[in-house]
Amino acid sequence: MPESVRHDLPASQADDHIAFRISAEQIRVIRKAAELIGWTVTDYVLSTALDRAERDLYEHAAALEAAAPSTSDTESADPYVALLLALT
């Protein structure tokens, strides 16, 4: 599984499940992509979802920073720092 998948989640979240319906064509595409890189479908879907979530959180933090008034460039927070704070 890729590095971006967080292994430091609290135990209570480790038992959570997500279920959704997809078409036969969608599962075929996902299964083929997972097989190509030697992952399970679960690992592939989880990794992809986490990568997208991390990107969306980063972009949101960057947009908030850009919209926030700043008195100097040295006082503005790095969007990556804001993302990490949001995840804690």
Could you list some keywords that capture this structure?
single chain; 88 residues; mainly alpha; 4 helices
How would you characterize this protein structure?
- This protein is mainly α.
- The chain has one domain (17-87).
- Helices cover 60% and strands 0% of the residues.
- The chain has helices at 11-14, 24-36, 41-67, 79-87.
- The longest helix is centred in the middle third of the chain and has 27 residues, at 41-67.
- It is elongated.
The run of helices and strands is HHHH
The CA-CA distance between the termini, in Å, is 22 Å
- Overall helicity: 55-70%
Main sheet attributes: strand count, strand direction, barrel closure: none
SS-derived structural category = mainly alpha
Short description:
With 88 residues, the protein is an all-alpha fold.
